[in-house]
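Why does residue order matter? Because the sequence determines the fold. Keep that principle in mind as you read this record.
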Amino acid sequence: MADPAFDCDVLVVGLGPVGAALAALLVRRGVSVIAVERDTVVYPLPRAVHFDHEIMRLLQQLGVADEVGRHATANPGYEFRTADGQLLMSFAPELETASGWASGYMFHQPSLEHALRDILATNPNAQMRIGCQLEGLDQDADGVTARVVGADGPVEIRARYLVGCDGASSPVRQAIGGGLFDYGFDEPWLVVDVKVQPGARTPDVNLQVCDPGRPTTCVLSGPGRHRWEFMLLPDETPDAVLRDGFIEDLLAPWDCGPLEIERRAVYRFHGLVAERWRVGRVLLAGDAAHQTPPFAGQGLCSGLRDAANLAWKLDAVLTGKAQDNLLDTYQPEREPHARALIELAIGMGRVVCTLDREAATARDRDMLAQRAAGAAPLPPLRTAPFREGCLLAGSPGAGTLFPQPTSGDGAERRRLDDALGEGPWLIARQSAPAELDIVARTLDDPALAPFHPGLARWFEAHNVPAVLVRPDRYVFGTGEPATLAAAWRAALTPA
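Structure:
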């Protein structure tokens, strides 16, 4: 029975894609959630335009992968070119990914947000309070009291935990104090989103044009849409570059034919990381915790990984399966991932955002030589395993994303996550002892037969007798089955 002292288990502040995904993950687990959102409607125009295979796997877990996929296009690749069109470097889509989905997708953000909110609208554990703004919060040893103002006036909401998914300016982050680490990358760009009209000829690959006269991005943004981003030059103002004539002049050299401008905005691309992601019963996720330039296409991905990491831990704590200090593993796990991707994006940005012509000439010369020699100018778009947190440190594969083998094609395709369901898994070569709250299987289990080749390859590569996979599909650890089960229990409820 619900505790009458609390209005909900978790109060989520902000119903963008990160807040909506976190709320959806929680309510599917039976956690009661109130989500408050200042804006009265889903922002109807594109913002984020890329997510990767791991995020599609998360959407699969939420049951909306097919719906979101109707508003997405597989990433065709990413090229950096000189002003005169020479290829500096390229990132081709991976043919195989750990998640069993395409390596990346160009998508329409409003469609994603509607799909996530539809989950909340039909789940009895969820309440959405739209048009409500957080005015302040207080917390004590047992919970958080938030003061929220909406159309009906001010109210207080009492929750066991509060998560701020409330964007870059984050009132929640301000309320709990703590500063921001600033990477010192701060560049203004004009973003222009268009609808592609019949007869238009837009590029079929994502492009970064490293032109010192005007650094430019040109990418797909879901079916029937395209995006251009133009770096502002030192003497330009936002008001000036937002004018119709200015934008038409920028698009004219692309000679794409009929386009309908859907959105125009000036953004400052920068890299920031909050110093504290948790203070007591208040936590941060998404842009409230970290912000990145868009060049690696990982801003939304990082926020949704926050949601996946945090959801199962909150559930474990709220249901008594884990102690509260499990939440202390959230920032140590997620911050290094987020920082690595921010630093990669800044590295890409420093390649692109070069206005000095002599420096650009030297850059092009060096990168063309590197490419001719077969060297990678930038590190691959992969992050290191978790080094600390909720894992069996030192065991092979610990802290890495566990693969999702698939079988079949099209409508007959089957995926491992759907077969095994939510919660932690213990998969063993020989014997998998039954453990409370852990799905235990052996490799020869008939349920795993369609996925046996992929699983067997992973076991051979790591040379381990068993693996324990966390609910967010990261590897807790490997070793003997009984040892893993005991280590998992100890990690959740340390002495």
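The mean pLDDT is 94.
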